[in-house]
Amino acid sequence: MAEINFKLIKNPLSKENPITVQVLGICSALAVTAKLEPAVVMSISVTVVIIMANLIISLLRKTIPSRIRIIVQLVIVSLLVILVDQVLKAFVYDVSKQLSVFVGLIITNCIVMGRLEAFAMSNKPFDSMLDGLGNGLGYAIILIVVGFVRELFGSGTLWDYPVIPQAFYDMGYQNNSLMIMPPMALILVGLIIWIQRSRNKELCEK
Amino acid sequence: MKWVRNLLDNIKPNFEKGGKFPWLHSTFDAFETFAFVPKTTTKSGAHFRDALDMKRTMTIVIIALLPALLIGTYNIGYQHFLSLDPTMGLFDDVWQNLWYGIVKILPILVVSYGVGLGIEFAFAQLRGHEVNEGYLVSGMLIPLIMPPDVPLWQLTIAVIFAVVIGKEVFGGTGMNFMNPALLARAFLFFAFPSSMSGDKVWIAEKADAFSGATPLAEMMTGGTMPSTSILDMIIGFMPGSIGETSVIAIALGAILLLITGIGSWKIMLSVFLGGAAMGLTFNMFGSNSYTQLPFYYHFLMGGFMFGAVFMATDPVTAAQTNRGKWIYGFLIGVMAVLIRVVNPAYPEGMMLSILLLNVFAPLIDYFVVDANIKMRTKRWKLKGGTNV
């Protein structure tokens, strides 16, 4: 078995993060993070799709004619997405309904296509899988943080359990409805980018 | 004023390089330049500097806001006691009304200034530049566009949001593309709708039996005419946000802004033209009672006047070119009336229309400048000039 290259997993979590540094896959990050549960399910789905797609493309990389490579990639990714969609419908039907069209849209998720083009087309299968795992986790960590904040302050719950005590509401606390709206996800992602760049000056553009 | 100068001169060495608190330099600088016009001059080349610098400009805007603040304060008390006893006359208990209003508005003012200026100073220290004076006006505008019963913790969050997200991330005063005061209100409006809309919030601690509907809300729910008389609307004794109710008080502020040239008359006039144009258009084609409302009612109800005079003319977020100002103001008026009459979710359209046009202002400027360049190129060619 090949040696595990931990950099492939570690880099996408911080300084090559697909969302906060490469700014890919933003629209699904905005759409599914109003609650924690769909955010987690979406993260797992995307991670699985990236790992599998990276593996398959990497295995096929020498046989794919370069002129039709995008079509081949799309066919493979859509196959995987249909599988994931069926699994979600079978086991977590409620969440699947909440995610609605965004599961199907994983096909066009820039992170998936980006990793296939940038990495899987020119690297070995095992490394490609690690790269897929890293990027999937990088996507997941942002989605979960945003989903956590939005659900906590927007609905006062976490994973649909009420966590803010009733006494707070009796004293006049109110849920922040702006948190549930998509703009707030954009602002939260922006704040994460701000914090990340102020800690890591290498990332700042000139 | 001599003793202030002496005091400042005495403690100044502490805040300069080598003093005890050099890291507090920008804080000291803020207070010094607030009290006196700075004596420093440019080091090279010619310089002409007006004594009317940013801090003095801001002070004049605050003076222009004072009439609205005063009448607003009285109105808080008057509306409260009127809801308890609907037979009460306007001047039955002046001091009681005024005192109640002061008790209500003071915490809002303190929170607005305390939180906002706190953030400004903190950012100035962190970034090592001077404290911007922009918040002096925003801090006064924010209380005036709040309902009198706004919970203070919500106000705090809104101010933090407006100053940090609306201003500091873009680089502080002069760099923001949206009006911070309106952003604070928009934040509250969307985040905590129950404290910012409905019939309950516009009168402080309203008695349940009394209808607290603003004229806008009455029209929204299908009224034929607002129940408040035109005279009351002009003087300002109706439920509403603290500073927006009195047309006279706002007009006084507007006169001061126009005389000193701080507020742009082009923008103010074109906002009203736009509102009138849209109102008249509705009168022609409208089918329900709101569309048939005479257009000048739109100026008297809600925040139209306040927005036109104090919000739309904000020099940072408005269009900069002369022709751009006309377009910008006109569209604000049109959008405000359009949102009021057509959109059932938002009784007041002024806030949203100004924010919308704030976003479009750079685009308007771009096209105005671009059109000018094209026109002059054409003229140059007509005169036989060679290609440029």
Describe the structure.
The complex is a heterodimer of chains A (206) and B (388). In chain A, strands 1-2 form a two-stranded antiparallel sheet. Chain A contains 10 helices and 2 strands, in the order H-H-H-H-H-H-H-H-E-E-H-H. Chain A has helices at residues 6-13, 26-32, 36-60, 69-91, 93-99, 101-104, 110-118, 125-155, 166-170, 182-199; strands spanning 157-158, 161-162. Chain A has one domain (17-205). The relative contact order of chain A is 0.19. The termini of chain A are far apart. Chain A is 67% helix and 2% strand. With 206 residues, chain A is mainly α. In chain A, helix 3 packs parallel to helix 7, helix 3 packs antiparallel against helix 8 and helix 4 (69-91) crosses helix 7 (110-118). By secondary structure, chain B is mostly helical. Chain B folds into 2 domains: 2-35, no CATH class; 55-373. Chain B has helices at 2-11, 25-35, 54-84, 94-127, 135-144, 152-166, 180-191, 193-196, 215-220, 230-235, 247-260, 265-285, 296-300, 304-311, 322-342, 350-382. The longest helix of chain B has 34 residues, at 94-127.
Number of helices of chain B: 16
Number of strands of chain B: 0
Domain module count of chain B: 2
End-to-end span of chain A in angstroms?
42 Å
The major pleated sheet of chain A works out as: 2 strands, antiparallel
Show the helix and strand layout.
The complex is a heterodimer of chains A (206) and B (388).
Chain A: H1 6-13, H2 26-32, H3 36-60, H4 69-91, H5 93-99, H6 101-104, H7 110-118, H8 125-155, E1 157-158, E2 161-162, H9 166-170, H10 182-199
Antiparallel strand pairs in A: 1-2
Helix pairs in contact in A: 1-8, 2-10, 3-4, 3-5, 3-7, 3-8, 4-5, 4-7, 8-10
Chain B: H1 2-11, H2 25-35, H3 54-84, H4 94-127, H5 135-144, H6 152-166, H7 180-191, H8 193-196, H9 215-220, H10 230-235, H11 247-260, H12 265-285, H13 296-300, H14 304-311, H15 322-342, H16 350-382
